[in-house]
Automatic annotation (TrEMBL), chain A:
It comes from the Eukaryota. InterPro entries: HORMA_dom, HORMA_dom_sf, Mad2-like. Keywords: Cell cycle, Cell division, Mitosis, Nucleus. This is Mitotic spindle checkpoint protein MAD2. The lineage of its organism: Eukaryota, Viridiplantae, Streptophyta, Embryophyta, Tracheophyta. The gene is LOC104710381. It is found in: Nucleus. Residues 15-198 form the HORMA domain.
UniProtKB/TrEMBL annotation, chain B:
Pathway: Protein modification; protein ubiquitination. CDD domains: WD40 (cd00200). This is Cell division cycle 20.2, cofactor of APC complex-like. Component of the anaphase promoting complex/cyclosome (APC/C), a cell cycle-regulated E3 ubiquitin-protein ligase complex that controls progression through mitosis and the G1 phase of the cell cycle. Coiled coil: none annotated. Residues 107-129 are annotated as: Disordered. Residues 138-435 form the CDC20/Fizzy WD40 domain. The lineage of its organism: Eukaryota, Viridiplantae, Streptophyta, Embryophyta, Tracheophyta. Residues 111-122 have a biased composition (Polar residues). SMART domains: WD40 (SM00320). It comes from Camelina sativa (False flax). WD repeats lie at residues 184-225, 268-309, 316-360, 404-437.
């Protein structure tokens, strides 16, 4: 796509990058919820995004939670204050953290401070995100089965000087003890660089016995 | 599928894709299986608790900061450095979760996220609920709206004393009943300071005419009057066993022994303007005083003699406004927190042993009062314009844990209940509000039984 019109599309602004990242997070979270069977399959609806059939949950409370999340994340991204977003999957019965999807964000502070745009082809970002989505979908092959009913939560790691609306509370990091970690692909909008990592609880230790 | 193991998994012997194939929990070879449960005789690292990057940094004498410059070293080192820089900032990171959780998949109640059973060495105490509104509001008509006075104190017998213009009222917190202690004569008053003695029975009242009266709250009788300590109003008082220290508008601080006839035992000179903040340390060895001259003095009892001119142990001049808010840390010796007034708006932390300023935090609003929590490592500050809020900070990170609003004018006076759970605040808006901000010691104990079953259920799965 070397045409002149495509060149105009290649300009990424801070606002645009924040939108891309928060949108990515929304779809990625939905995908994780679907693939890890946190919510039953029938509560998801198919949409086309990133050139793939993506699934979005229909449940109102989850949808509103997600939209609040993405708008706040977008705000923090534009301020350059967001360090990472973590989607935590916990057992509903025991509250034990079983899986932790860690999206680490690196912001180009120059863009935040000076507002200079960057250049990167839309298509390329799309391709990178596609790769991540495919990886998430295929993660079922190595992630341990989540037999019990699970719930999820989202944590945001921000700078301490960030303006926090009252709808957000401080939380503990909800880490997993002795996790296994798998690094997935990341994507880069040249303003925000997102790395994905999933850590999960080790399978039953007695299996070796 | 292309699964890459992050290089930060230093020491992890087997990549995860192998795990998928064998379905066998391959552990890192230095980490035996039940390590987290049994304490074997070798050091078993706990991955999630380990700060790998910090450990690497400590070992390698690593570099600081977010190093954006091109790395000469391999990409793994670059990743390390980036992760390191990020983790180094962890002290400056806030972890937030959205308050309104989505509905759980099955229609039952959502899980309590508080019962987390991972073996972090840092305590994962459930975050307690801090009510955002005052638990109780009482009327405090005619309370004098003067920054430099100290009109509220909560005694150890659980009785709150508040001075409203010329009258001192006592409010019994256990019964909720109010009684009038005394109404001062017109020419002597108004009351400018009030302070309970450690026994919770005797109370000292400082007056506008420079007198200090000593009252017995049990019999509602005046015991004595201390005269001659000051030439102008007594705005601050502090007890140290039998010594009543008085701070005056004349800038003088006088130690009075209330048992003897000639009560003045020592005079501290140093402040050039009104002494509005006065607090003895927990040990009773050091006295902190804050004045309208923006200076904080630390006086030490071991530095004796009222003859020498410079008796103070430390003279702290960093504040740029009057310092009324002073609070000694209950869990760390020699740590003093001070708060500056309208032109300063900062809370500063001092090592009173060396006189060094440990930290300074801009709060954005005049700091009228400071209180340390007795149960947790937290600090409560009260403010004025514009929010008139009480802010609860986590110490030492100085992360804001809560902001309590309700007062419509600057929160000049604060006092803590003897059990350390409730804070009373009074402001020029003529209200006295009570806040359950410091939590109850029992709730933290209650959390333990909730988490206790978890390790046991874990054991069941192993065997």
């Amino acid at each position: 796509m070397a045409s002149k019109t495509a060149a105009a599309k290649d300009i990424i602004t801070l606002h645009g990058s924040a939108a891309i990242v928060s949108e990515f997070f929304c779809y990625a979270a939905n995908s994780i919820l679907y693939n890890r069977a946190v919510y039953p399959e029938e509560s998801f609806v198919k949409v086309k995004k990133y050139g793939l059939p993506m699934l979005l949950i229909e449940d109102e409370s989850v949808k509103s939670f997600m939209s609040n999340l993405t708008s706040q994340i977008s705000e923090w991204l534009e301020a350059g204050k967001l360090q990472r977003v973590v989607l935590v999957i916990m057992s509903k019965a025991t509250g034990e953290v079983l899986e932790r999807w860690n999206f680490r964000i690196e912001t180009d502070t120059e863009v935040v401070d000076k507002g200079v745009p960057r250049e990167k082809s839309d298509k390329e970002i799309m391709r990178e995100i596609q790769a991540i989505m495919r990886q998430v979908a295929s993660s079922v092959t190595y992630l341990p089965c989540l037999d019990e009913t699970c719930v999820f939560d989202v944590l945001a790691y921000t700078d301490t000087d960030v303006a926090v609306p009252f709808t957000w509370v401080d939380s503990d990091p909800k880490l997993i003890a002795n996790p296994q970690m798998v690094k997935l692909h990341g994507f880069d909008t040249k303003i925000h660089k997102v790395d994905t990592l999933v850590s999960y609880k080790n399978d039953e230790w007695d299996e070796e016995e | 599928m292309c699964v890459l193991v992050d290089n930060m998994d230093a020491g992890m012997s087997t990549p995860s894709y192998l795990k998928a194939q064998t379905r066998c929990p391959l552990q890192e070879h230095f980490l035996p299986r039940k390590s987290s449960k049994e304490n074997l005789d070798r050091f078993i690292p706990n991955r999630s608790a380990m700060d790998f990057d910090y450990a690497h940094y400590a070992l390698m004498d690593g570099r600081k900061g977010k190093d954006q410059s091109a790395a000469v070293s391999s990409p793994s080192k670059e990743a390390y450095r980036k992760q390191l820089a990020e983790t180094m900032n962890l002290n400056h990171t806030r972890i937030l979760a959205f308050r309104n959780k989505p509905q759980a998949p099955v229609d039952l109640l959502p899980t309590n996220h508080s019962a987390s059973l991972h073996q972090q060495p840092k305590s994962v105490k459930p975050r307690r609920y801090i009510p955002q509104t005052s638990e109780r509001t009482l009327d405090a008509p005619d309370i004098v709206d003067d920054f430099y006075l100290n009109l509220l104190d909560w005694g150890s017998a659980n009785v709150l004393a508040i001075a409203l213009d010329h009258t001192v009222y006592l409010w019994d917190a256990s019964t909720g009943s109010t009684s009038e202690l005394v109404t001062i004569d017109e020419e002597k008053g108004p009351v400018t300071s009030i302070n309970w003695a450690p026994d919770g029975r005797h109370v000292a009242i400082g007056l506008n005419n420079s007198e200090v009266q000593l009252w017995d709250s049990a019999s509602n009788r005046q015991l004595r009057t201390l005269n001659g300590c000051h030439q102008s109003r007594v705005g601050s008082l502090a007890w140290n066993n039998h010594i009543l220290t008085t701070g005056g508008m004349d800038g003088q601080i006088v130690n009075n022994d209330v048992r003897i006839r000639s009560h003045i035992v020592e005079t501290y000179r140093g402040h050039t303007q009104e002494v509005c903040g006065l607090k003895w340390s927990g040990s009773g060895q050091q006295l902190a005083s804050g004045g309208n001259d923006n200076v904080v003095h630390i006086w030490d009892r071991s530095v004796a003699s009222s003859n020498s001119t410079t008796q103070w142990l430390h003279r702290l001049e960093e504040h740029t406004s009057a310092v009324k808010a002073l609070a000694w840390c209950p869990f760390q010796a020699n740590l003093l927190a001070t708060g500056g007034g309208g032109g300063d708006r900062t809370i500063k932390f001092w090592n009173t042993h060396t006189g060094a300023c440990l930290n300074s935090v801009d709060t954005g609003s005049q700091v009228c009062s400071l209180l340390w929590s007795k149960n947790e490592r937290e600090l409560l500050s009260s403010h004025g314009f514009t929010q008139n809020q009480l802010t609860l900070w986590k110490y030492p990170s100085m992360v804001k844990m809560a902001e309590l609003t309700g007062h419509t004018s600057r929160v000049l006076y604060m006092a803590q209940s003897p059990d350390g759970c409730t804070v009373a605040s009074a402001a020029g808006d003529e209200t006295l509000r009570f806040w359950n901000v410091f939590g109850v010691p029992e709730t933290t104990k209650k959390a333990a039984p909730k988490t206790a079953p978890e390790p046991f259920s874990h054991v069941n799965r192993i065997r």
